[in-house]
Write a structure and sequence with these properties.
One of its GO terms (biological process) is potassium ion transport. This protein is α/β, with parallel strands linked by helices. The chain has 9 helices and 11 strands. It folds into 2 domains: 115 residues, Rossmann fold, CATH 3.40.50.720; 101 residues, 2-Layer Sandwich (Alpha-Beta Plaits). A hairpin with a 2-residue loop joins strand 9 and strand 10.
Length: 226
C-alpha cells in the first residue's frame, strides 16, 4: 500500500510540530517555507524540505503538489499568503486541504474557498485548557461538535476495582468508555469485565452534558467516601 503523502506549507511552531508528528506516525512529508534557516533545520527530519514561495503556482507544480494526498497550510502571520496558498492547493487538485486560521474572519474566508478543514490552534488549545482547569479529573479534551466530545479522565477512588459492567456508563449516563490507559499500555475497546483502577485513564466519548454528569457524580461519590 502506498504511504500517504502530506505537504506542509509554513514550518513555524505549528507547522513544524505537525510535520514532525506525521513523520513519527510513518507518513511522508514535504515541508515548504520561505526561510532558508528553517528549511535547513527541518530537512534532516522530513522526507523532503524545500525553500519556496507557496503562492507561486509554477513552483508548486514543479514540486508535484497535485500528487499529494493532503496539503496543510500552516502559515501563521500572513493571511493573504495563507489564502493564496490554499487556493492553489485546491486548484492543483490536492485531495484534502487543511488550513490554519488566525482569526474567525480568516477561517470564514478559508471555508468559502472550499478548504476541507479549518484549524484554530490557539482557540482550540484555549478551550482544552479551560476544560482541564475547571474539571478536576479531566486530563485532555477534544471537541467533536458543540454537543459531543472525547475526554481523558483519571479514574476516581470511587470506581476503583469496579468492572465496566458495574459502572455501566452507557446505560446510566449515556456516554461510553472506549479505551483505558494503564501503566503505559492502552486497552482499546475494553470488555464489560475489565476492571478500573485508581490512576487508570479513561477515554470517554459522549455528549458534553452526559460526560459532565458522569464526572460530577463519580467525583462527588469519591469525595464523600461512599
Amino acid at each position: 500500500m502506498k504511504t500517504q503523502q502530506f505537504v506542509v506549507i509554513g514550518l513555524g511552531r505549528f507547522g513544524s510540530s505537525l510535520a514532525l508528528e506525521l513523520i513519527d506516525l510513518g507518513y511522508e512529508v514535504l515541508g515548504i517555507d520561505k526561510n532558508e534557516e528553517v528549511v535547513s533545520n527541518m530537512s534532516e527530519y522530513l522526507t523532503h524540505a524545500v525553500v519556496a514561495d507557496a503562492t507561486d503556482e509554477e513552483v508548486l507544480k514543479s514540486l508535484g503538489i497535485r500528487n499529494f494526498d493532503c496539503g496543510i497550510v500552516a502559515i501563521g502571520d500572513d493571511i493573504q499568503m495563507s489564502i493564496l496558498a490554499a487556493i492553489l492547493l485546491k486548484d492543483l487538485g490536492v485531495r484534502t486541504v487543511v488550513a490554519k486560521a488566525i482569526s474567525i474572519l480568516h477561517g470564514r474566508a478559508l471555508g468559502k474557498l472550499g478548504v476541507d478543514r479549518v484549524i484554530f490552534p490557539e482557540r482550540d488549545m484555549g478551550i482544552r485548557v479551560a476544560h482541564q482547569l475547571v474539571t478536576p479529573n479531566l486530563l485532555d479534551y477534544i471537541e467533536l461538535s458543540k454537543e459531543y466530545s472525547i475526554v481523558e479522565m483519571t479514574v476516581p477512588e470511587s470506581l476503583n476495582g469496579k468492572t465496566l459492567s458495574e459502572v455501566n456508563t452507557r446505560a446510566k449516563f449515556g456516554c461510553s468508555i472506549v479505551a483505558l490507559h494503564r501503566e503505559g499500555k492502552i486497552i482499546v475497546a475494553p470488555t464489560a469485565m475489565d476492571q478500573l483502577h485508581s490512576g487508570d485513564i479513561m477515554v470517554i466519548i459522549g455528549s458534553n452534558a452526559n460526560i459532565d454528569q458522569f464526572e460530577s457524580e463519580a467525583v462527588n461519590v469519591s469525595k464523600s467516601g461512599k
